[in-house]
Amino acid sequence: MPAYLHAVSGSNAIVGLGLALQQLGGVIAPIFGATKVEHRTKVMPAAIWIGMGGRLAILGMAAAGWMLSGQPLVWALLAFIFMFGVFMGAQRVVFSLLMSKVIPISRRGRLQAWRNATGGLIAAVLAYFAGKHLIGPNAFGNGYSTTFVLAFVLMTSGLWALQFLMKEPEPPTTRPQARFRDRLREFPALIAQDRAYGAFLIVQMLATSARIATPFYILYVGRVVGTDGATLGLLSFAFLGADTVSNLVWGYLGDKTGFRLVLVASIAAWIGATLLLINVHEVAATFVAFAGLGAALSGYMMAAQTMILEFGAREDLPMRIAVSATAESITATAGPLVGGLVAEAFGYTVVFGASLGFLVVALAILLLAVQDPRRR
User: Does domain 1-167 have CATH number 1.20.1250.20?
Assistant: First the structure.
């Protein structure tokens, strides 16, 4: 999608706007999704229609590519990207709730690990296939639109397979149905009733804020080391390879010890990799730094998404997931924009310093104020 948006607009700013709109769509949508499922004993029907909304956005991008051109195409793509962000934000809540209902707590890490590893491998193979056989030869008049149709078919097939193959259990109790604005008013109480969860939420926001540096890692390396094609491929391999392999390590470690340890280790690795990247300007050290960054981000994502399922009362789980997703989306939306402005005004080193500051504070709060919910 970013490559297609750049191809039709010729503007880096439009690409940034598209990514920001996708994140913005995920700010309010998780809370809306939670209010639609927290009173239900079965959430699969909601998962289907929410999931189909996101998939129809992909189909809309495909149709726009065949039917429109120029500025109308750009605006249509931006609208569908925002729609995709809205429905994916709501889907995050529903799918996390389903995972908490059907996967035992002792196996969540390893199953997520194998899902992420195999999913990453399949995505890489499909991306290569799409680039070579669909986008390259401009299949059916628009290779990107053809790719989006293929994505729509595969994603929809997965959604329907989930509906027919998974048996969803019914919980013994649920929350009574409430209006959206009433649930918004209850947020302070929801956070205050569990101090460890409140501190965990702050850790999430700080760690997400630290990602302001992520888009600039490779640009910084290009300035201080140089990035020809071979170096770029090597660093991409280090980042993505470490992400894939470390998923298995983080998953099994989390199942055995609880995911607080995974969160501590991943943030510490993130700090160490950033320091190495800033201070040692050799290809070998940069390779290690990128591998550390890939592993750290992988561990953080898995730990954050799994720990949230273990705090507080089960009846409040949908709204806790929504609060965390909304908090992350807010910082994820503002972070790249602020990071770009800071990098432009003061340079990459200041951005990396801010990222390190967020991470150090997050690690301190995690160690001092967040108990492992599995051990309490």
Answer: yes
